[in-house]
Amino acid sequence: LCQVLEFAGVRADPSVCTSQTITVRLEDGRVYHTGLSLPLGDDRITIDGWAGIDHALDLVIDLPVTERMLGKDKRLYRVLHGQRIQLPVTGTLERPVVDEERLARNLQRLIQVALRDGIGRGGDDLLRGLFRKLK
Fold first, then answer.
1. Model confidence over 9-33: pLDDT tens digits?
2. Contacts of 43 (CB under 8 A, 6+ apart)
3. Residue 42's Cα: distance from chain center in Å?
4. What is the pLDDT of residues 68-85, one digit of tens each?
5. 114, 80 Cβ separation under 8 angstroms
6. CA 20 to 30 Å from 77, out of 90, 116, 128, 130?
7. What does DSSP assign to residue 16?
């Protein structure tokens, strides 16, 4: 990975330089890749998708849900701990854009699964708190 980054003129932190297999193919002016994994604290993020020769992007970044991501809400983090979220990114290399509609669907799915699975782990308190905020 470091050799690829260096070739592209990108200076990478040594912790990013790992040995990994990344599947890459060039098709219709797009470079498709799967399997790119980067360290994020004690966890990892993965990035799959494509970047076009014209600089267009269509990527999915899979990352762990963190307490910071949830505004340090400990109850919500207790329910969502261990879950991952897929962040869809489109646009261009110069102006990447989060696809908010796809992200909203991913969040809805994540919350449904987490609440269903988390009711026995404090999810009932979370539901009561959410309903209080809606009143």
1. 556 666 666 667 788 899 999 999 9
2. 63, 64
3. 15
4. 777 777 777 777 778 888
5. yes
6. 90
7. G
